[in-house]
Amino acid sequence: QIFRQHNAKAPNLEEAFHRMAQMEPNLDHDVSWFLLPSYWAKMVVALISFLCFANSYDGDFVFDDSEAIINNKDLRAETPLGDLWYHDFWGSKLSSNTSHKSYRPLTVLTFRINYLFAGGFYPVGFHVINIILHCTISVLMVDVFSILLGGLQFSNKGRRLNLAPKSSLLAALLFAVHPVHTECVAGIVGRADLLCALFFLLSFLGYCKAFRENKEGHTFSVFWVLVSVGLGAIAMLCKEQGITILGLNAVFDALVINKINLLELIRKLLYKDKALENAGLLRKGLLFRITLLMCGGAGILYIRWRIMGTGPPAFTEVDNPASFADSLFVRAINYNYYYSLNAWLLLCPWWLCFDWSMGCIPLIKSVSDWRIIALAALWFCLIGLICQALCSEDSHKRRILTLGLGFLIIPFLPASNLFFRVGFVVAERVIYLPSIGYCILFTYGFSLLSKQAKKKKILAVAVLGILLINVMRCALRSSQWRSEEQLFRSALSVCPLNAKVHYNVGKNLADKGNQSAAIKYYREAVRLNPKYVHAMNNLGNILKERNELHEAEELLSLAVQIQPDFAAAWMNLGIVQNSLRRFEEAEQSYWTAIKHRKKYPDCYYNLGRLYADLNRHIDALNAWRNATVLKPEHSLAWNNMIILLDNTGNLAQAEAVGREALELIPNDHSLMFSLANVLGKSQKYKESEALFLKAIKANPNAASYHGNLAVLYHRWGNLDLAKKHYEVSLKLDPMAPGTKENYNLLRRKLEQLQKKGG
Q1: How big is the CA angle at 426 (ends 420 and 431), to the nearest 5 degrees?
Q2: What InterPro entries does the annotation carry (predicted)?
Q3: What are phi and psi of 598, to 5 degrees?
Q4: What global pTM score does this model have?
Q5: What share of the chain is helix, strand, coil (3-state, %, to 5)?
Q6: pLDDT under 50 in the chain at which residues?
Q7: Does the residue 390 lie in any domain?
Q8: CB-neighbour burial class of residue 409 (10 A; exposed 0-12, middle 13-18, buried 19+)
Q9: Which residue range is the domain that position 392 belongs to?
């Protein structure tokens, strides 16, 4: 309700506003809860939201953080800032067929700023920003809930009145401590949802400011409506859900500002009643404001569509199996089941998982499946709430229920599969914004129970218990997000049928060198999903390293049969075939890999090794040169070029290649070692010695470094130094090839010199 100032000299006008507000139904009359001044309420919310997620501040980069941050070239200084506007969230070109079309340039920009200030990929700074963002959003929720639950009213001084301080505090606390938010806060990639939510709320609050009467006496400000549209655009540039705030602003305008009765309006539209103006549609500039919102939203979507291109995102069946079902019935049933699971996560956020795809939720294929009960329960509750929101004679009840349902459903629509296919089954991060609606409905339900309850304190203690349990659950879940090992293992009990969970546990074990345990989890991943080519590829790699070549070949051959453009599997198949001495097949596999991934330096490197084994030296050098062109820091390719040229007597060329490599990778001790060998053979002893010593300083425990330096001194005539380094080499590796023989030769020579001297 908007009040005008008719008499500036009225002494107690602000108190009159409070009295007028109290005449309307108010949630706080029935809510048995703490009443705190606005400042203290916000401080409490900020502190509790901080305590929930504080233990995630020193966590690692986990799960999707690797692709979105560590492997994302858009974070590096050498990438022009302008490229961010033409790349997706993962750093791929939006025009690429493989792009997920997730356009979030402002989120990527914050990652880039984090990287710049941290001086590298140090996760602490990234985590701290996420925690601060969630605390800020939770504090803003106090103001947002005070409007949604208490209405929008201003004093004669233009100050917004908080007519539901107790209810808004409770709702903000529920939001701040909800465990389903852990993925957004503790997972750095969740920054997209946090930034989107921040500007989403600012857009809503900006829209509310439009109705504060200005000095000219206008009842709304076009400027603030346009600011709200702009903030909505910024929210969308952080994550796609942000655009939905424009629809919610329109709903808020109709229900709260214009007090439209939706059921009455629908009836008048159906019966073509000419008195629509009396229904509030044209009053107070509603139609004009909705036109502004619609034009702004359409303009934003058009610009995004032009940048993104017309092609849909590329997702696979394992990402969202229901969307690939042939039957419309199966798709509809499973989509609705996914909605019920999202609702359950809001009601009971105990079973949380980083990934719900790949068999975690088997498809419902018939009405005899007992899970149909979940759909029925969801729609029974929704239809009941919608009927109350439309048909209740209590306008206060209608307004709160409609706003609660609006904030629950509208921000979820982009993730609903209704308009386009999404790349997930269930994702906890996408219900960060819809949880606002849940908190409204929960708080309203609590007020109704409080009104009926005789012992209100017991009810308040129960809600305090829920908040405390959620705080502990947040802290526990945040600790699980601190490392990939804890995160992946936590999912085994929640989604034991999820092949990706087993794959990620196996990958984590393999990275730590525990190959035997990794094999077990990779095999389970393949058993659960017989078409899981990435699990086959990784399992094949481990079996290859364990010299179980025939099974490795079977797995890799099956992987490329299932996915013929899987370049990594083709390369690994080539390595196995090379080890089996089937050189022609290996060469063909390498070239197939390069055909599917033209910029593939590792494949060129392995192709060079094949040609070297076949004594096709020119082809080997060309392959390795291609590897270094594509990846100038490819140390192994440079080393192999130097060694091959050295072994074939091309010392001058080997020296030139070695110097070129060290200019590009000046701190690589293996390159220093290889070039030092070449310089020693070219009798450039002083320079060779300097490089050997530098290599030994970088890697003092390499027996070959000491052994070859000893050979240099031996040739050079520095026999005492040669003896010293031979002995160090043999101490590090008593079985070092050739070193013992050279050492014995040196000892005999030293004995002969002693005899001559004697």
Answers
A1: 90
A2: O-mannosyl-transferase_TMTC, TMTC_DUF1736, TPR-like_helical_dom_sf, TPR_rpt
A3: -65, -35
A4: 0.84
A5: 70, 0, 30
A6: 1-23, 215-218, 279
A7: yes
A8: middle
A9: 321-343+358-478
